[in-house]
Amino acid sequence: MLFYRERGGQYRTIADRSNMEDQMPTSEATESKRVGQKRLSINLPAPVFDELQNLAEASHRTMTELIRDAFTLAKVAYEETSQGNKIAITDRKGKTLKELVII
Fold it and tell me: How much of the chain, in percent, has pLDDT values that exceed 70?
């Protein structure tokens, strides 16, 4: 599960922020049982598929969960940057190490 924290606030799930919690099942086993669930088939280059599979194994998550998280992160990033905010990776002292730029 993904979490975020606004300055001085408590940690919250990304699903709470985007109001998508009811739309996002937590496992592939429940996926087909959810009402209103849609199936999506995607084509990935073999190296990307292999990386996704390795990440899923390393994080003890399903590839579906990782794709959902990627969508949620992209959605939050687009929402924030469209409001003029920046998305950044910072060190523990708050120094910006990387900034995500969406074109």
Answer: 67
**In what helix (H) or strand (E) does residue 32 lie, and over which residues does it extend?**
none
Mean pLDDT of 28-39: 66
List the end-to-end C-alpha distance of the chain, in Å, as a whole number: 27
Q: DSSP code of 97? A: E
Q: To the nearest 10°, report the CA torsion of 68, 38, 41, 64.
A: 30
- How would you classify the pairing of strands 87-90 and 96-100? antiparallel
Q: Where are the domains of the chain?
A: 3-29+43-100
- CA 54 to chain CA centroid, nearest Å: 17
**pLDDT of 21 strictly over 60:** no
Q: b/e for 60-82, b at 16 or more Cβ within 10 A?
A: eeeeebeebbeebeeebbeeeee
